[in-house]
Amino acid sequence: MKFRQTNMPTPASAKAGFSPSSGYRFEHDPRLPSQKQVKRGRRRPDPLAAIWESEIVPMLRLAPGLRPIAIFEEMGRRHPEIDFGVRRTLVEQHPWLPGAVFKAFSQAKDKAVDMLADPSASKATLPFLEERVAQARALMSDDFWPYGFEANRKTLEAFLRHHHAQGLSSRLVKPEELFHPGTLESFKI
User: Fold this and answer.
1) Average pLDDT over residues 172-189
2) N or C, which end of the chain has less CB nearby within 10 Å?
């Protein structure tokens, strides 16, 4: 920027044909943008940062063969407050995504329950598995792991009532407020 040798940054930038902010940026760092390797940082905080060293690393040291999905599921159970869900930006770009994810999980659950009840080839090493499945169905109906909003409405309402009564929320939250609208209704065809 030869104009900068005789002018202040703003007039030098104007004479060179670019904005004053670019002039100041060049003065601070004369490299061209193509010469800079800027690492893109995270757009949101790492949800596992607080528990990585204290929980995940010790777990991996004790059982180095753990599958990542097992660690992910365990952390979801231990820390339900951590958001492992679909990113809001993805939902904004693809409004159908929450419903599709819910449908995929529902189909996987249905398949798992069907496989569990299949007596031809046991899927678990649990003694008397067929009897246990029959007991669970007798006690809790065929859908003993209900998925979907309506199937869990009473449970959600009770949870939110207790949550508010214990002072954990400033107001009584409606169950519908917890979920994306695309997951509130499910249809069977």
Assistant:
1) 77
2) C
